[in-house]
Amino acid sequence: MIIKKPLFTLLLSLFILLSATSAMPLSQPSSLPLKTSVEPFAVAADAIRPGSPGGVLLALTLHMEKEWYSYSNVPGETGKPTSLTAKAADGTQLEVFYPAGKKKPDSYDPTITVAAYLDGTKLFVLVPDGLTAPFPTSLALDLLLCHPTKCVPARVNLTFGQAGLDTGTLPPADGQPWWSEFQGMSGGQVKTQDSTKEDTGNAHIVDWQFTPAYFQPGLEVRGLLSAVLMGLLAGLILNVMPCVLPVVSLKLSSLLGAGAEKGPDRIRAFREHNVFFVLGVISFFLFLAAVLGATGSAWGALFQDRWLVLGIAAVMGALALSLFGLFHLPVIDLKFGVGNKDPRKQAFFTGMLTTLLATPCSGPFLGGVLGWALIQGPVVIATVFVSIGLGMSAPYILLILNPGLARFLPKSGPWIEYVEKGIAFFLLGTAFYLVGIALGDASLRILAPLWVILFGGWLWFRTKTAGQGVRLLLRVSMLVLLAATVYWTTPMQTEVDPWEQFNPAVLNQDLGEERIFLEFTADWCPTCKALEATVMTRENVEDWKERYNVRFIKVDMTERDPEAEALLEALGSRSLPTAAVFRKNDRQTPVVIRDLYTVNQLENLLKSL
Fold first, then answer.
1. What digits encode the pLDDT tens for the residues 97-144?
2. Is 496 helix (H, G, I), strand (E, B) or coil?
């Protein structure tokens, strides 16, 4: 096989850049992805546990950048324990209290579960009354900061207070939102919904019990017939949700390839292609019904597995490289005008792959359908999922019923090469995006500019014979796009996040005490990201916090979290995005918002609390 010189140059550039990237040493950055803050609180004698002294309780908060974490003081099977040593000014060693940490798969070996400290974690130090010189207190924090792609050891030395510090005006510790969690880690009794239970600080799932009300009750499912009808409509709408962007190239290539058949069997081949494409879609929905029904996982939960996401990224990258002409794929090969040995298998597996890429999305009607269906029996679940698949396949079913529509597809010509390469770059961009989900935003700082360089290089070679004005415009456009991409992927200076992180023990204590807005989200959920960019912006959240006195708590389900899944299920939902609003003095009846919502809808709801 002969590789054209321009393509060879692009691939060589890709190889060199990736090789240089992989060879970069993982040294400690000049500034750590960690900031700390210390706050003092007054604690009375016997407040922590019987016989405990009173004094000052120091709360050391770990502020970590996105996707960074450290191992807890007792990390589990692997990892370096986080250690905090504290001394009073007179040399007295002070007692330190560590939280248990959040259970999560280890980034480097997902088969191992570790306990991790995430952004917002608090460690506590007790400065008891009666010391000769309690302040200034010296704190030494030793930990291993980890990211999905690397780990950085860190040691932070702090001092707090000054000699003669007035502790009489400090706020009481037992009035803070974290007090219940602290009692658990210190061995004291934790107040829960059932006051007879004790929380020892170990990870557990709170027994959530709600009677949710729904923001749009008319869209809730009441029986099998309404579930099937709404499933058909929800599946049809999935074709125009944000997930359509990664799969539109697959659909377009598949249709154009099928319509490019020539000869008397063109109509038969076109119909056959669409039949097997639809069968692929329905088969994958039946697979989803079995998996989600058996595991109780949320819609799109397959994307919580990092290795599965990387596998899909590899498939998308292979499809892109095949469109560049590097090789022929054995089952799915999207090149136009290349006869496939088994077009039925190609259509079937293309339908399955298209459906897999669409599952992170949710749209109107789908949340209510899934919330009802996934608590039913296997036959009902399968029936509803088939209806969703039929709705998503509706455009192809129309082409099956009227294959003569193939005549409206454009005939092959020189233009087809540009469409083919455009689809290749779209698939390559999808592969890079999936790698970013699996490995974190840091990888996109390399992959996104790389994609622009590759695309710009291809355009440059294709327009070498164009006029000087066209080439100048192309150069300027590519430089502007590259600069915008670098700016977009470069992390900005960390600002105070208006969102609180989900902590089940704290949330369980605070429900009914104040207004709370919960948002369930994940990095693999495009609809969630669309809402965050249009409705749940930083400006809107900060404005609503101030005007309506609401706490905003984010429940991140990017990775598997049994506690978050139990809370989502208790709210009657099995899909993302989902939001819930809790009123003050009413912890039992939250208002649940499924799927999409607007700024005006949310503001009107907050006004009515």
1. 998 888 888 777 777 788 899 999 999 999 999 898 899 999 999 998
2. coil
CA dihedral 476→478→479→483, nearest 10 degrees, is 140
Cα–Cα dist 194/407, whole Å:
68
d(C-alpha 342, C-alpha 61), whole Å: 59
User: Which residues, at least 6 apart from 375, have a Cβ–Cβ distance to it below 8 Å?
Assistant: none
Nearest-angstrom CA–CA distance, 576 and 304:
13
Q: Which CATH superfamily is domain 500-607 in?
A: Glutaredoxin (3.40.30.10)
Q: With beta carbons less than 8 A apart as the criterion, state whether 553 and 507 touch.
A: yes
For the beta carbon of residue 272, count every other beta carbon within 10 angstroms: 18
Mark out the alpha helices in 324-415 (DSSP H runs).
343-358, 366-373, 378-392, 394-401
Would you say 41 and 176 are in contact if contact means Cβ atoms under 8 Å apart? yes
pLDDT band, residue 320 (cuts 50/70/90): confident
Q: How far apart are CA 38 and CA 62, in angstroms?
A: 9
What single-letter amino acid sits at 276?
F
Give one DSSP letter per residue of 218-256, joined into a string.
Answer: GGS--SHHHHHHHHHHHHHHHTTSTTHHHHHHHHHHHHH
More confident residue, 149 or 401: 401
Inter-residue contact 61 to 122 (CB < 8 Å) = yes
**pLDDT recorded at residue 406:** 65
CA distance 437 to 556: 13
> Domain-by-domain residue ranges, the chain?
34-186, 216-439, 440-491, 500-607
* Other CB atoms within 10 A of residue 186 CB: 19
Q: Are residues 86 and 138 in contact, defined by beta-carbon separation less than 8 angstroms?
A: yes
Pairing relation of β-strands 150-160 and 500-501? unpaired
| Buried b / exposed e along 474-496 (16+ C-beta atoms within 10 A) | beeebeeebeebeeebeeeeeee
Question: Which CATH superfamily hosts domain 34-186?
Answer: Thiol:disulfide interchange protein DsbD, N-terminal domain (2.60.40.1250)
Q: In 393-440, which ranges are continuous DSSP H helix?
A: 394-401, 416-439
